Every structure is written in structure tokens, then in C-alpha cells.
């Protein structure tokens, strides 16, 4: 019997060559291979007599192999030709560059061959995709044949043969509780593997797939429950005192040049309550563009600072980190707060404790910080599990810092409660001082020049965002706009008399800072950029946003990009350009004209595009899902319900507990 945790080379016939090829598919263990599911099936269920065949149909034929030979054409091509005979006629079979086939086939034996019927030298023939001897255990020949994600040198037939061997020689006893199997009418594990790899019909394949989608989500969500327990019950943190500090906090809030919204006040109340507990806070501050997450984080930082504990504030880019520093300086400098700026190129000095250190996520690995009471992660979807575990060493006397994470990525509530099931969530639902709206227009190709003329004549601070840095000459991407190319084209063209700049992630940090500063003070009027500006660049006087190749973005990301303009009270304008002529893309992008709510747009995209845009937030703890679909809310809620029900009694379910450990290497390649 195979152990699913063993290296894939433990299977007979898989030597160093095939082991290396399988690694290209993230297959390292026997379990990885078993869970390498088909992405579609070739339907060879139509079995016909040879005399009834027609050109271009995909069929299966049965008969006796009467001849097979290898041929070299006068042009040097290698062909293998064979003849299959049934009671109604003879069919010629042709393979190209596959002379080994002659050694495999047996003249006089009965076979089934499946493939597309074509015409060669004015007579019907078939180029077989699959074949089997009739006395062999069928892999579904004449029914549905699995098609797997492949790599050069590994065919679906080869993969299917090895997977069949695993199913026949592994202990695939059921591990899901009986209640789940019965309530949801899922097939047992062994049958599920047969039905997803070698189904009798499409319905069996669909049912098996639903079972594995549920299985993957259930195990992920049981792990979420475990993380929640470990964080809240087994870790201790410094208790942040509020008593006797209320006046200082109130004075700070009164000194702000704006009124806090009701949702900001509530988020501060919830966060203060968490900070006062002896177990570490693990709270997500979720708010659309412009809802004021930074000021909430600043007030919480001030409270921790007043408790003589250090604060780390981490942003995803140095540009954003510098902007946060300027915000903190503007509001806190008069209070004598020790503020420090730490980047990848500026080393930590001997900071005077307590302090608030602001920098990028690289802070965690470049410097040693101690006695940290609070860590704030801005745009937490860019912050991985590895960095998060690093936080545990930053407290004092084995204390774990409190953790406040923030995101402007709108997440539908069901997904938030599921993916972030180990976090408490504070939503910011109001946008303070929102006096002006942003006018959004999806611009057809024939109106592009007119739109640019309007932008030029407006003479306003303008962002032009392109998905790529450099132009791609791959046929799939040749029409996608690139920042460097567009910068040169626009500088020589319509904006030849306008100050224009370029910003992208590969530029040195000091150069990026200089470009942003020039754009901020008006020395640069038009800034061509990659989506590096998406996460928080704050230029209040910028009023125009142009987004090129917009079909490549999710609606929520586009909403965040347009949120970069109109932040100073003036009316903002967002022009959406496409690099394809897809009607579906156009219809999807038109929702931006209708809705100015990031959460609503995220929900629309989830329905239209599935869960692809959600993968960015997976670094929080979810692995990239292999078969489950986060847009399938019913299955997600179902898995969440069962995870909460069974987690407290996992010790009484040894098969499920063992599976949780096993599955870490099943769905995702693990070397």
C-alpha cells in the first residue's frame, strides 16, 4: 500500500527523469499526484462502427488491430500507420513522430481507439488520442477520459495510469464524519477519487468535484479555527491601560482638523478594548478608500506609546511609509512623540524608548525590535504568514505584540468572516468630508484621442496607470499598455509641452520619492505609473485618473485606483481605457460608472469573475486553493459551519485530525 506522504519516486516507473518533470506541476509526493485533478474530460462516449464514421467527429471505435508499421516520408517526417478492422470496414490510424507505438501495439489484439476522425490522402482515418486493449482495466475508454494539467514529457494518459495505480494501492478510507457524508450526500473518499479521475459520466465527476471542494475548504477552515485558538488562548500580551489616559486621547481627537465618523469612533472603541486584554489583539480594520483607517491607527499607536510600549507601523511600499510618517509628524510632533523612519536602505538607530517606528514590511527582517506593544500592518493582504509569525519575538518577557491589520481591499462579508475567521473585524463604512464625487467614464477606442485632448486642456494633476512596466511582445499581451512605453510615447506626443514623469516599482527608492515629491508640488503635471500608486499614495491636488488596459484589473482594484484622485475636495475624473474589444469586459467595467462602493464592486466581480481577485488576500493564511471556489458562497458557508462544529471535538475524530496533517502536502506541492 502506498503512503501518500512518500516521495512520488516511490511509485514504480517514476525515476529521476519523471520525478523532475512532475515537480514542474508542483507534484512532489504520492498524495500530490493523487490530488492532481483533471481540469476537463474528453467525451469519447460515442462508440460507432467504422462504416458510420464522419469527418471531424470525435468518437470511439472498437475492432481488431490487423497491421502496424513505421514510415519515413520523403520529407523526413516519421509516421506510424495501423489498421483497425471491425465487422463493417477498415480504419487507418495515424500517429506522427511516435515510432515507439509500433512496439506497444499487438497485431491481432482487440482494441478501442478514441480521437478525431479526419481525412488523409482522400480517405477516412483517425489520429488517436487514447487507446486500450479490451482485456485491460478500462480507464473510461468509450466514456469520459480525464485531461490533466500537463507539462512537456508528461501526457494525460501517463498521469492517469499512475493515478489509477495509486487509487488501487492506497488506503483511501473515509475520514469525514458520517453526519457530513449523509447530510450532504457526498460519495465516500475512494469512490470520489474514482469518479473525479475516471468518471462514468459528467454528473459523477461533478459530484466528486463538489466533495473535494468542500473537503479542501473544511480543512482550511479547521486550521483557521486552530489559529484563532492559539492566538487568543495560548499567547499573552502586554495589557495596555486606558484609565488616566482618556484626557490625552480626547485632547488628541479634539485637535484633529476634522470630525471622526461614527464608524471610526466605534473602531477605536473596539480596538482599545482589545488592547486592554491580556491576550494579543488580532483585529482587521477594513475600510474603503478614504474612510480614514490611518487616523484610527494613529490614535491607537498614541495610546500604546503612552503606555511606554513601542509601536511598529508597516506599509507595503516606501512611498506609502514616507507619507504615513508625514501624517504622524503633522499630528503628533507638537506632543513630543519619538517618531522614527526605517526603510530597507536606512538602518535602525538607537531609538529612544518608547518610539513609533514607521517603515516597510522589511522592518521585520532587517532589524531587531524589542518591547513592541503594537504592530500595525497596512494593506495586510501583502503581508504573509511568515512575517506574521515573526511578530511573536518582538514583545518582552515572552509577550506577543498586539496586531492591528488594515486593508482597503473590499471583501464580501461572508468571505471576510471565513478567510479572516481568526480575526475580529472593524469595518469603516463612512467616508469623512466627502464633498465631491468622482466622475467615471469607460472610454471606447474611438473616443481615446478626444479624452486625451480634454485631459491636456484641463491642465490638472493626472495619473496614467499601466499594468506593465515594460512592453511585452508575447501575442497574448502585445496590446497591454506598459508604463515605460506609454511614457515615451506621450512625452513625444500629446504631452510634449507638459511636464511628465514616470514611476514604477523597479526604480530606486530615492528616485521614486523624488518623482512623487515633484508630482505633489506640481513640478510634474502628468505621472505615468504602474499600479504601485494603488496602495495609498496621497496627492490631494490630483484630480484625473487614466487607467489603461483596465480589463486586466478587478473592479475593486480599479475602485482603489480611482480613489487616488479628488482627495482634496475638488471633483475627480476617472477614464477607463481597454486594450481589447471584449463585450463582456466592457459590460463589467461599466459597473464602475454605476457604483462608487468598493464592497458592492467586489461582490459583482466575485459573481462575474470567480475568486481569482481574492487570491491576493490569501497570504494571510490560506494557501492558494487548488480546487475549491471562493465564489461558491454556499459551500464556503457550509464548510465554515462544520468547521466550527467539529473543531472543539477534533480529539474524538482521529481520522479527521490525521487528515488535517496529511492534507498539508496534498492540495499544494510541498518539497
From TrEMBL:
Taxonomic superkingdom: Bacteria
Stored SMART domains: DEXDc, HELICc
GO BP annotation list: DNA repair
Entry coiled-coil feature ranges: 228-255
Protein's UniProt keywords contain rRNA-binding: no
Residue ranges of domain Helicase ATP-binding in the record: 274-428
Pfam families per record: DEAD (PF00270), Helicase_C (PF00271), RecG_wedge (PF17191)
Helicase C-terminal domain mapped to chain residues: 447-612
UniProt entry keywords in alphabetical sequence: ATP-binding, Coiled coil, DNA damage, DNA repair, DNA-binding, Helicase, Hydrolase, Nucleotide-binding
Gene Ontology MF terms in the entry: ATP binding; DNA binding; DNA helicase activity; hydrolase activity
Name under which the protein is recorded: Uncharacterized protein
Amino acid at each position: 500500500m502506498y503512503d501518500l506522504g512518500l516521495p512520488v519516486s516511490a511509485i514504480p516507473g517514476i525515476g529521476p527523469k519523471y520525478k523532475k518533470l512532475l515537480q514542474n506541476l508542483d507534484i512532489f509526493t504520492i498524495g500530490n499526484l493523487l490530488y492532481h485533478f483533471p481540469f476537463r474530460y474528453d467525451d469519447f462516449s460515442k462508440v460507432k462502427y467504422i462504416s458510420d464514421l464522419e469527418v471531424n467527429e470525435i468518437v470511439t471505435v472498437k475492432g481488431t488491430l490487423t497491421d502496424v508499421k513505421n514510415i519515413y516520408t520523403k520529407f523526413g517526417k516519421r509516421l506510424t500507420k495501423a489498421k483497425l478492422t471491425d465487422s463493417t470496414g477498415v480504419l487507418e490510424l495515424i500517429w506522427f513522430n511516435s515510432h515507439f507505438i509500433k512496439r506497444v501495439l499487438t497485431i491481432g489484439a482487440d482494441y478501442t481507439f478514441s480521437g478525431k476522425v479526419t481525412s488523409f490522402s482522400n480517405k477516412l482515418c483517425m489520429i488517436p488520442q487514447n487507446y486500450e486493449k479490451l482485456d485491460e482495466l478500462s480507464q473510461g475508454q468509450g466514456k469520459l477520459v480525464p485531461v490533466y494539467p500537463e507539462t512537456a514529457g508528461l501526457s494525460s494518459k501517463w498521469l492517469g495510469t499512475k493515478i489509477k495505480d495509486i487509487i488501487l494501492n492506497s488506503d483511501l478510507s473515509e475520514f469525514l464524519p458520517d453526519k457530513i457524508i449523509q447530510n450532504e450526500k457526498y460519495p465516500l473518499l475512494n469512490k470520489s477519487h474514482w469518479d473525479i479521475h475516471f468518471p462514468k459520466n459528467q454528473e459523477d465527476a461533478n459530484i466528486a468535484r463538489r466533495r473535494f471542494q468542500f473537503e479542501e475548504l473544511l480543512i482550511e477552515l479547521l486550521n483557521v479555527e486552530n489559529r484563532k485558538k492559539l492566538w487568543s488562548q495560548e499567547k499573552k500580551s502586554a495589557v495596555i491601560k486606558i484609565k488616566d489616559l482618556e484626557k490625552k486621547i480626547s485632547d488628541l481627537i479634539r485637535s484633529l482638523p476634522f470630525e471622526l465618523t461614527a464608524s471610526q469612533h466605534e473602531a477605536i472603541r473596539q480596538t482599545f478594548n482589545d488592547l486592554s486584554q491580556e491576550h494579543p489583539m488580532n483585529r482587521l480594520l477594513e475600510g474603503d478608500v478614504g474612510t480614514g483607517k490611518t487616523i484610527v491607527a494613529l490614535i491607537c499607536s498614541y495610546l500604546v506609546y503612552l503606555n511606554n510600549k513601542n509601536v511598529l507601523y508597516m506599509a507595503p511600499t516606501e512611498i506609502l511609509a514616507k507619507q504615513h510618517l508625514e501624517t504622524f509628524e503633522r499630528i503628533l510632533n507638537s506632543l513630543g512623540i519619538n517618531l522614527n523612519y526605517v526603510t530597507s536602505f536606512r538602518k535602525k538607530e538607537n531609538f529612544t524608548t518608547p518610539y513609533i517606528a514607521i517603515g516597510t514590511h522589511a522592518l521585520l527582517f532587517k532589524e531587531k525590535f524589542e518591547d513592541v506593544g503594537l504592530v500595525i500592518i497596512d494593506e495586510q493582504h501583502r503581508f504573509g504568514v511568515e512575517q506574521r509569525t515573526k511578530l511573536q519575538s518582538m514583545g518582552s518577557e515572552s509577550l506577543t505584540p498586539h496586531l492591528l491589520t488594515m486593508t482597503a481591499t473590499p471583501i464580501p462579508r461572508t468571505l471576510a468572516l471565513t478567510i479572516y475567521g481568526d480575526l475580529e473585524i472593524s469595518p469603516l463604512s463612512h467616508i469623512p468630508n466627502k464633498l465631491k464625487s468622482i466622475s467615471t467614464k469607460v472610454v471606447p477606442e474611438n473616443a481615446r484621442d478626444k479624452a486625451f485632448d480634454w485631459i491636456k486642456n484641463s491642465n490638472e494633476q493626472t495619473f496614467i496607470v499601466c499594468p506593465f512596466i515594460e512592453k511585452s511582445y508575447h501575442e497574448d499581451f502585445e496590446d497591454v499598455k506598459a508604463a515605460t512605453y506609454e511614457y515615451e510615447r506621450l512625452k513625444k506626443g500629446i504631452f510634449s509641452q507638459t511636464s511628465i514623469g514616470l514611476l514604477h516599482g523597479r526604480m530606486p527608492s530615492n528616485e521614486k520619492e523624488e518623482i512623487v515629491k515633484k508630482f505633489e508640488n506640481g513640478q510634474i503635471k502628468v505621472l505615468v505609473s504602474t499600479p504601485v500608486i494603488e496602495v495609498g499614495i496621497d496627492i490631494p491636488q490630483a484630480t484625473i485618473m487614466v487607467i489603461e488596459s483596465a480589463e486586466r484589473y478587478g473592479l475593486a482594484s480599479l475602485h482603489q485606483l480611482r480613489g487616488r484622485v479628488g482627495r482634496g475636495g475638488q471633483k475627480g475624473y476617472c477614464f477607463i481605457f481597454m486594450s481589447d474589444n471584449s463585450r463582456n469586459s466592457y459590460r463589467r467595467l461599466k459597473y464602475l460608472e454605476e457604483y462608487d462602493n468598493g464592497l458592492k464592486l467586489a461582490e459583482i466581480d466575485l459573481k462575474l469573475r470567480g475568486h481569482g481577485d481574492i487570491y491576493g488576500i490569501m497570504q494571510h493564511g490560506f494557501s492558494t486553493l487548488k480546487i475549491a471556489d471562493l465564489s461558491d458562497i454556499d459551500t464556503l458557508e457550509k464548510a465554515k459551519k462544520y468547521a466550527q462544529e467539529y473543531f472543539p471535538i477534533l480529539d474524538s475524530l482521529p481520522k479527521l485530525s490525521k487528515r488535517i496533517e496529511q492534507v498539508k502536502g496534498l492540495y499544494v506541492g510541498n518539497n
